């Protein structure tokens, strides 16, 4: 696991779980996952979105399995993805009738790499324990791990009511918010214990406890991490759209990750209408990368711009290179091992431009307002060229491509 710095907190020790060949917990790096928003019964759309999420970097993809038609589609989705060489594990998201769907569709139960169940809506009253047990027994039969995912939007009301009553009997020493947090933690732990009593191994259980407020998430997961060694999935549920969802998720999960808590994450962004679902994958990667825990994609450093940089050339160049990198990364990962470590600098004037460019593997300092229309290029800390004329941006893009080929291409192996 590469990065710029190490957390001052030791990584929490958790039991490793094999999810279709992807390790979650133990000594494995934090895993990025996402979820489709297609109708799973629509095989074509679901396959296309799973493939897009995987290309963007999602290492696990969850799909909704809510009715017979979606359960019946899962084996075909798995088969189609395999033919496309999209080997990402699929996680089935079950609510209310998961026990029945798994029993009625054994091919679905086999095709999925993991089952996700919510103890708050796996069943009600006397059916709850029985239907929970049936899902766990199916997981044991097919040798699948289970994520027990508590969500405060569908929290076990019997458990919450009991804890509230006990709190009142004790003179209400805790607030309602504190009792709710405790109910979330207990729901996860009691459900995990019940699954183990049925026979599911600890190395087959992942826990999550999702809430929608930053401070609640930090408090719940801190408590859960202190009372369990199960692998933990982090996620702020109902995080919201755009910058609100990004900031809230990053603030909450960043604090937990810095404390060594969390084995797999999802940034649950509400997409814009017809928006790009892969955005949540990019944000997850950027969170882990900027914190120095993993490296997914070359870094493009660019200055924010000021009165010295009234030209938009450096902004357009930085954007073009960033987009080019993201577009090419699925191929580059195979063709150029180690390319994710590359650092590129695109700077807008002479104030910090040369210095930042020298710190990068390859960088350019473009002319600011009133500066001589020349652009020095630095490679591995040394000035390598000076670009001039109307094609500076295009010339630099070519130099970046040449640098990647020379440093990370297969030709370097022969040369060495």
Automatic annotation (TrEMBL):
Pathway: Isoprenoid biosynthesis; isopentenyl diphosphate biosynthesis via DXP pathway; isopentenyl diphosphate from 1-deoxy-D-xylulose 5-phosphate: step 5/6
Any one Gene Ontology molecular-function term assigned to this protein's record: iron ion binding
Catalysed transformations (reactions): (2E)-4-hydroxy-3-methylbut-2-enyl diphosphate + oxidized [flavodoxin] + H2O + 2 H(+) = 2-C-methyl-D-erythritol 2,4-cyclic diphosphate + reduced [flavodoxin]
All residue ranges annotated as the IspG C-terminal domain in the record: 300-400
Domain IspG TIM-barrel positions: 17-284
Database matches in NCBIfam families: ispG_gcpE, PRK00366.1
Name this protein carries in UniProt: 4-hydroxy-3-methylbut-2-en-1-yl diphosphate synthase (flavodoxin)
Species in which this protein is naturally found: Mesorhizobium denitrificans
């Amino acid at each position: 696991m590469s990065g710029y710095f190490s957390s001052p907190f030791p990584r929490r020790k958790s039991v490793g779980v094999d999810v279709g060949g992807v390790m979650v917990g133990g000594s494995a790096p934090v895993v990025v996952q996402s979820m489709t928003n297609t109708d799973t019964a629509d095989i074509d759309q679901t396959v296309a979105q799973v493939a897009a999420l995987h290309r963007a970097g999602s290492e696990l993809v969850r799909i909704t399995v809510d009715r017979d038609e979606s359960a019946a589609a899962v084996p075909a989705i798995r088969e189609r993805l395999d033919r496309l060489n999209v080997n990402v594990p699929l996680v089935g998201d079950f609510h209310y009738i998961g026990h029945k769907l798994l029993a009625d569709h054994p091919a679905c139960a086999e095709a999925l790499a993991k089952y996700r169940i919510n103890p708050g809506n796996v069943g009600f009253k006397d059916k709850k324990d029985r239907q929970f047990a049936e899902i766990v027994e199916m997981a044991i039969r097919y040798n699948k791990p289970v994520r027990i995912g508590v969500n405060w939007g569908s929290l076990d009301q019997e458990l919450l009511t009991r804890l509230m009553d006990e709190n009142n009997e004790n003179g209400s020493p805790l607030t309602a918010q504190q009792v709710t947090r405790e109910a979330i933690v207990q729901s996860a732990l009691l459900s995990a214990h019940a699954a183990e009593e049925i026979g599911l191994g600890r190395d087959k259980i992942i826990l999550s406890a999702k809430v929608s407020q930053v401070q609640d998430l930090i408090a719940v997961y801190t408590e859960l991490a202190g009372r369990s060694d199960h692998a933990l999935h982090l996620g702020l549920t109902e995080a919201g759209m755009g910058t609100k969802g990004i900031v809230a998720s990053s603030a909450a999960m960043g604090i937990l990750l810095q404390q060594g808590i969390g084995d797999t994450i999802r940034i649950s962004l509400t997409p814009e209408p017809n928006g790009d679902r892969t955005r949540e994958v990019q944000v997850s990667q950027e969170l882990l990368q900027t914190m120095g825990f993993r490296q997914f994609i070359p870094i493009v450093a660019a200055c924010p711009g000021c009165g010295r940089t009234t030209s938009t050339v450096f902004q357009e160049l930085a954007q073009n290179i960033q987009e080019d990198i993201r577009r090419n990364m699925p191929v580059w990962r195979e063709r150029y091992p180690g390319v994710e470590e590359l650092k590129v600098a695109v700077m807008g004037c002479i104030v910090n431009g040369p210095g930042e460019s020298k710190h990068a593997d390859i960088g350019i300092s473009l002319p600011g307002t009133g500066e001589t229309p020349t652009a020095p290029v630095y490679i591995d800390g040394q000035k390598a060229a000076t670009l001039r004329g109307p094609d500076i941006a295009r010339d630099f893009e070519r130099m970046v491509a040449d640098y990647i080929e020379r440093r990370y291409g297969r030709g370097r192996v022969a040369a060495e």
